[in-house]
């Protein structure tokens, strides 16, 4: 079963390989950044529309903040401005796709046959 609130993705951006990690440290960094926002606000922005389609109106500042936060674990020298430039650079689409992959792994759904909660076992377990 997938780890809740944890996701990883890799991408080559600007000729360099990056590993994005969405975890508690990323959430804390995002919340404590001067441009940061609460985890609840992030979750609202990332939740799908009522019809299940992904939102397409995320602010660029939030996308840069999420990318920066996801890079903190493995690439602590990348700044918020660097993350924004990655999104606007020639590999911007790759950066966005990696960010979406990373975050979607942290918030898995059961759509498409994904893993959900395991079924309850019948009976009782026996001690060996």
Word description of this protein:
- By secondary structure, this protein is an alpha+beta fold.
- The chain has one domain (7-110).
- Helices cover 41% and strands 11% of the residues.
- The protein is built from five helices and two strands; from the N terminus they run ββααααα.
- Strands 1-2 form a two-stranded antiparallel ribbon.
- Helix 1 crosses helix 3, helix 3 (60-71) crosses helix 4 (80-88) and helix 4 (80-88) crosses helix 5.
- The longest helix is centred in the C-terminal third of the chain and has 15 residues, at 92-106.
- The radius of gyration is 17 Å and the shape is globular.
- The two termini are 26 Å apart.
- The model is unreliable at 112-119 (pLDDT under 50).
Name its key features.
single chain; 128 residues; alpha+beta; two-stranded antiparallel ribbon; 11% strand; globular
Question: How would you concisely characterize the structure shown here?
Answer:
By secondary structure, the chain is of the alpha+beta class. It contains five helices and two strands, in the order E-E-H-H-H-H-H. Helix 1 packs across helix 3, helix 3 packs across helix 4 (80-88) and helix 4 packs across helix 5 (92-106).
